[in-house]
Amino acid sequence: MTYSHNLERVELGQGVILLQGWVAWDDACRPVLQLHGRDSQGHPWVQTIAFNRDRPDVVGALGLAPTFQRCGFFYYAAVPEGQVLELCAHTDGARLSLHRWADPLDQNSNTAPFPSRLHQHLRTWRYFLGRSWSLLRSGQWRGFKERATRHARSAWQVAQLALKPAAAAQPETMPPWDCLVVDHDLGGGANQYRRHQLAQELLAASGQDSRVALLTFSVLTLQYVVYRILPEQRQELVTRGTWSQLQAWLQRSRIAHIFYNNAVSFPQALPLVQAVQTYCQQHACRLTVAMHDYFPICPSQHLLQAEGRYCQLPDTVTCQACLARSEQAMVTLYRHHGIEAWRAVWGQLLATADEVRIFDPSAQVALQRAYPDLTLPLSLRPHAVASLSQAEQDQLHAWQAQKKRPSGRIGIVGSITSAYKGEQPVSDLVRAIAHGGHPYEVVVLGECAAMPGLPLRSTGPYRASELTALIIQHDIDIFFFSSVGPETFSYVLHELERYQLPVAAFDLGAQATFLARYPQSICLALTDSAEQVLQKLEPYLRSPIH
Prior knowledge:
Blueprint lengths: L2 E11 L2 E10 L6 E7 L5 E6 L6 H7 L9 E7 L5 E8 L2 E7 L16 H22 L2 H23 L15 E4 L6 H18 L5 E7 L4 E8 L3 E8 L1 H10 L4 E4 L8 H15 L2 E5 L25 H10 L13 H14 L2 E4 L2 H10 L7 E3 L9 H13 L6 E8 L6 H13 L5 E8 L7 E3 L8 H7 L4 E4 L9 H6 L6 E4 L2 H9 L3 E4 L5 H8 L1 H4 L4
Parallel strand pairs: 8-9, 8-12, 12-13, 13-14, 14-15, 16-17, 16-19, 17-18, 19-20, 20-21
Antiparallel strand pairs: 1-2, 2-5, 3-4, 3-6, 6-7, 9-10, 10-11
Helix pairs in contact: 2-3, 6-8, 11-15
């Protein structure tokens, strides 16, 4: 077997490691990618890394078959800092070293030591610029222009944080903060809510001289960062640094209100929760907890089992056994805590909260099941979804007026690049269409894994303002919302409601709430086979349109 590989990003700090790159091979035998190390007592440990990223750029550059497209990896997990020894690929008894670090327990080691923080920043910056350039050269402008722009923006963020001084000494007395928002910076619905709804709400409430701060964790640089939120989605860097530096900053600060939005990806998530709870109790600080996902219930924030199926919130013994072997989402950062310790800490935070903000009634059911002894100050506040513009409505009406018969196209909206978003049911549906010889096609308005030779195509990332045009362009008959975990609210479903087309979704979480009230809904069971799903969709793919 012949290998090609590139380790594009290596970040180590805050007790976590981040690895990103690709390994290409020339036959059907997929290698096993492993991270090797030793604990502080010298005992060896091994962590397996999944190939979880499509890399069409690699396939194109090396002239590989499309079946080898999923050769990229992104790995972000907790490790004993300074105890990582080697990243290697194994197959058929052979071992290929992709990267070797100095062994801190071996004084005679000749390998390179761990890179400096500045060196890591510069390497990450180079990686994002390189990805931007390769994507811009691809010529696939719809999807890749958005990605390239995002990569360039990330590179700029890394450069700023690398050049700015770390947590400088703060005066003993600082101006008070009206609110501190705790949120990740990974994108998605939680960030959308924070930028477009929450920030406006907080800034308006505190007036012209408002002081609203954002505490986040930069996965790009493995640092905690505090920004001041300014009008028009602007941010001003306040401080950055390690977890201990952040704690010191928090203790010196005067905060009237802490708004927990989301802390997925924070390496010290439980210590952060404890610090927030203690601060609110000691300083009579108002606390709001928003339920954008189920992170306060389980480190697998979408409530997926290790196998990628909805867990249905079983007993804690079952939860603990699942957690110990799960690789879902970012569980590798947190599973060492155990489920009982996890819920004990989060339960204290929820009990301290002045408001637990939910966006769909299904979240209340899940919270009551996980915390039956708590009486929570729940408030239901569904997200606002923008209406179609007059121009979009006119385009939509014109298209619907001339559409006389179905096109046989099933639309899926969003980035279908994880188990939670429905990679498996989408793949199964496409194969069922092909194997049955049906004249149908699945069109993903967004991103998904390539399936060469099968009735599937994707548009790549899109702007919200482009959705109406894409639906019309691809002549969509019906939508399939493929998420297999319970949503706490779905922007996508509420956006699709505006088009008054049939929508199929699984009967769980916020999806079930939507299905119950939407007249053109198709209710799917998680136990439905791909053939059964197709049978439920077929009437809308072949019947005349009235």
